[in-house]
Amino acid sequence: MTSPVTIQVISDIVCPWCYVGKRRLENALASRPEISVEVSWFPFQLSPDMPREGKDRREHYASIFGEERSREIMSRMKDTGLAEGIAFDTPPGARSPNTLSAHVLLYWASRSVGIDQGALVEKLFAAHHCRGEDVGSPYVLAGIAGEVGMNSAEVLKALQDGTDENVVEQLMAQAREAGISGVPFFIVNGEHGLSGAQPPEAFLQVLDELTRKPAEPRSAAS
Hints:
By secondary structure, the protein is an alpha+beta fold. It is built from 9 helices and 6 strands, in the order βαββααβαααααββα.
């Protein structure tokens, strides 16, 4: 193929399986370095009604699953993460944020020349899932934006002003209208959909099918 394979990833920063899915996709791509791939990230909110100030994460999980089950889920998630090189942690005081501002930041990165959206999404995932930082805070987001080469002061002001929130909300509405109700969701070349944190083999199967050269037609003499 002459054109890069495109992979659109619909995800939410607070979704641990989205982080796992990112790692598994990266593992698949690393085993096919000869295939040119362009990965882009699109917004989804698992908790769109989360207050903008967020909630205490441990209390939020306990309210959904109950205290004992939430502890079991977090313990299993830690084990899953370690297998993918992710050190999941929920330190005391960690927040469950409203992720709208984080998605706005990722949207700006996708439209900014010289800014690596993938590097930004990795930093956002790590900040939330490994360090317990509040990625709903404009100040935290502005700091992370500066780490990938964006102007922190400009980002902070635009986030505080709510710039482009309506655009990102429209993108999320489009995902739901397309039937996407859970994340991560991967769309390969605009036609192949993969739901969930698929193992690398699932990505490889699609990539190999797309990039397999058609068989040479046999000549009449053969």
